[in-house]
C-alpha cells in the first residue's frame, strides 16, 4: 500500500483543495453572483455534458488502464495508444452531425419546462467532448503511475477558472452570456494542458498497425461505454431530470445540497486514481492474496475517512445553512440521502476497479445499465411526487441496489468481502461520536460553531482510532504525524 498511500494522500490534498475552491464557488459565489435561474442553467449544462462524456470517450480511459500493462513490445504498445487516441472520434463525429441536424428537436426536449435551456445544446456537446478527451489523456498519465497533476487539473484548475470568471461577472467586466461561452473555453483549455502533460510522459508514436487483440479491445471499450454511462447516470441524471419537471432554479438548490454531500466522496476519488491501475496489475498477474488485501485495506481506509466526513457534514449542516441565502437552506434530507449513498460507495473500496478489470465486466455492465434505467424510472416517479427530496431518494435507492449487487457479485466470483472486524469497530465509533455530538449546539457565529464542534469531533475520532489501532495504515500515518 506504499505507493497507494503516497499518491492517495497527495491526491486527497489536491482534491480537497479543489473542493475547497468549489465550496466557495457553489456556496457563495454562484449563489450571490448569478441569478438562481442561470445558476440552475450552468448545472444543467455541466450535468448533461457529464452524462454524455462516457459515450463520447468510447470507454477509452478504462480500456487504456486495463490493457496497457499487458503489452510488452514497444511497437504493439504504440499501436494500442494510437488506437486509443482515434477511437473516441468514432462516436464524436456522428453525434456531432446528429446534434447539428436535430438541434431544434433536442433543444425543445430539454426546454420543455424551462425555455432558457434551448439555446445551449451545443454548449453541452462541446463541454462533453472536452471532458471525454481530458479523461483519455488523464488515463494516459495514470498508466505511467502519475495521477497527481491530472487530479490537480480535474479538481482545481477548472474551479479556479470558474472563480475568476464569476468575479469578472460580479464586477460587470463580462456578462453572464459571455461567462457561459468562457466556461466552454475553460474546459477545452484544461484538455489541451492535460494532453501536453500526458505526451511529456510518453510522446505518442502514430503506429496504425493495431494490436492482434484489437477486436477484443474494441468490444471491451464499447461495453465500458454502457458501464461508464450507467455510473454517470446514477450521479448526474437527477439534475437533468429536475429541469424536465420543475423550475430551473430548483436545480441550483439541489446542486448546492448535493455538492455538500459529495465532499464525502473526495477520499474515494483520490484513492481510486492509483488503486485502479494497481488492481489491473494484480488481476493480470492473478495475485489473489494481494487483491484481497488491497480490497480490504482500501475499504477500511476509505470508510474511516468518509465516515468522519459524513458526521462532520451532518452535525454542522444547520450552522452552514445559516450562512447561505434563504432559498438554499432546505436541503438537509438531500444531504442525508446522498451522503449515505457516498458512504456506502466508500465502504466498497476498490470494488469498481476489480469488476471493470476482470473477465466478468460484461455482467456488471449489463447490471449497471439496468440500474441506470431504474434510476431514471425512480426519478420519473419521485420527482413529480416529492420534488427535490424525491430526486435524492431516487439517487440513494439506485446506488443502494447497484452497490449491493456489486458487493454480492465480487463475493460470489472472487470469494472475498471488503469488510473486516475493524469495519464494525468504525461503525461503533461513528455511532459513539455522532450520538455524543448530536445534541451539542453552540451559540456563537456559525463559523465559530462549526470550527469548535469539528475540532472536538476530530480529536475524539482520531484519538479512538489511534488508541485502539483500528487500521494499520491509518495508525502508521498518525504515528508519523504525532512523532513530528
Automatic annotation (TrEMBL):
It is found in: Cell membrane. Coiled coil: none annotated. It is a multi-pass membrane protein. InterPro entries: Poly_Biosynth_Transport (IPR050833), Polysacc_synth (IPR002797). The chain crosses the membrane at residues 12-32, 38-60, 80-100, 120-141, 162-189, 217-235, 300-318, 330-348, 360-382, 388-405, 426-444, 450-468. GO terms for cellular component: plasma membrane. It holds the Pfam family Polysacc_synt. Its main location: membrane. Keywords: Cell membrane, Membrane, Transmembrane, Transmembrane helix. The keyword Transport does not apply. This is Membrane protein involved in the export of O-antigen and teichoic acid. The lineage of its organism: Bacteria, Pseudomonadati, Bacteroidota, Flavobacteriia, Flavobacteriales.
Amino acid at each position: 500500500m506504499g505507493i497507494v498511500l503516497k499518491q492517495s494522500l497527495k491526491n486527497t490534498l489536491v482534491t480537497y483543495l479543489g473542493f475547497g475552491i468549489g465550496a466557495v464557488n457553489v456556496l457563495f459565489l454562484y449563489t450571490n453572483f448569478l441569478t438562481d435561474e442561470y445558476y440552475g442553467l450552468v448545472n444543467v449544462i455541466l450535468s448533461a455534458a457529464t452524462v454524455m462524456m462516457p459515450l463520447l470517450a468510447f470507454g477509452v480511459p478504462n480500456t487504456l488502464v486495463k490493457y496497457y500493462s499487458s503489452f510488452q513490445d514497444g511497437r504493439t504498445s504504440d499501436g494500442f495508444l494510437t488506437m486509443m487516441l482515434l477511437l473516441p472520434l468514432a462516436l464524436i463525429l456522428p453525434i456531432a452531425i446528429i446534434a447539428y441536424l436535430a438541434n431544434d428537436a433536442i433543444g425543445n426536449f430539454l426546454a420543455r419546462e424551462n425555455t432558457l435551456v434551448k439555446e445551449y445544446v451545443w454548449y453541452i456537446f462541446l463541454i462533453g467532448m472536452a471532458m471525454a478527451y481530458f479523461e483519455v489523456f488523464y488515463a494516459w498519465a495514470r498508466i505511467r503511475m502519475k495521477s497527481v497533476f491530472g487530479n490537480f487539473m480535474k479538481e482545481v484548475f477548472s474551479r479556479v477558472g470558474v472563480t475568476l470568471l464569476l468575479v469578472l461577472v460580479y464586477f460587470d467586466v463580462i456578462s453572464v452570456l459571455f461567462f457561459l461561452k468562457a466556461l466552454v473555453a475553460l474546459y477545452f483549455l484544461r484538455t489541451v494542458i492535460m494532453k501536453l502533460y500526458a505526451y511529456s510522459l510518453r510522446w505518442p508514436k502514430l503506429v496504425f498497425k493495431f494490436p492482434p487483440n484489437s477486436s477484443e479491445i474494441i468490444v471491451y471499450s464499447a461495453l465500458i461505454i454502457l458501464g461508464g454511462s450507467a455510473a454517470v447516470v446514477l450521479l448526474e441524471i437527477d439534475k437533468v431530470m429536475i429541469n424536465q419537471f420543475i423550475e430551473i432554479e430548483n436545480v441550483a438548490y439541489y446542486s448546492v445540497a448535493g455538492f455538500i454531500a459529495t465532499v464525502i466522496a473526495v477520499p474515494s476519488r483520490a484513492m481510486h486514481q492509483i488503486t485502479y491501475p494497481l488492481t489491473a496489475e494484480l488481476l493480470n498477474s492473478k495475485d489473489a492474496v494481494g487483491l484481497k488485501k488491497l480490497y480490504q485495506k482500501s475499504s477500511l481506509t476509505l470508510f474511516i475517512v468518509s465516515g468522519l466526513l459524513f458526521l462532520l457534514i451532518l452535525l454542522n449542516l444547520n450552522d452552514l445553512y445559516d450562512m447561505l441565502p434563504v432559498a438554499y437552506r432546505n436541503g438537509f434530507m438531500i444531504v442525508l440521502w446522498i451522503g449515505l449513498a457516498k458512504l456506502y460507495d466508500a465502504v466498497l473500496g476498490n470494488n469498481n476497479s476489480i469488476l471493470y478489470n476482470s473477465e466478468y465486466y460484461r455482467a456488471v455492465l449489463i447490471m449497471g445499465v439496468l440500474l441506470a434505467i431504474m434510476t431514471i424510472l425512480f426519478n420519473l416517479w419521485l420527482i413529480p411526487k416529492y420534488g427535490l427530496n424525491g430526486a435524492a431518494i431516487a439517487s440513494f435507492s439506485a446506488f443502494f441496489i447497484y452497490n449491493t449487487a456489486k458487493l454480492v457479485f465480487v463475493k460470489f466470483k472472487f470469494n472475498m468481502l471488503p469488510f473486516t472486524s475493524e469495519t464494525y469497530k468504525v461503525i461503533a465509533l461513528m455511532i459513539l461520536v455522532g450520538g455524543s455530538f448530536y445534541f451539542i449546539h453552540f451559540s456563537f457565529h456559525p463559523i465559530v460553531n462549526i470550527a469548535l464542534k469539528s475540532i472536538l469531533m476530530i480529536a475524539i475520532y482520531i484519538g479512538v482510532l489511534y488508541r485502539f489501532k483500528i487500521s494499520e495504515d491509518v495508525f502508521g500515518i498518525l504515528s508519523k504525524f504525532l512523532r513530528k
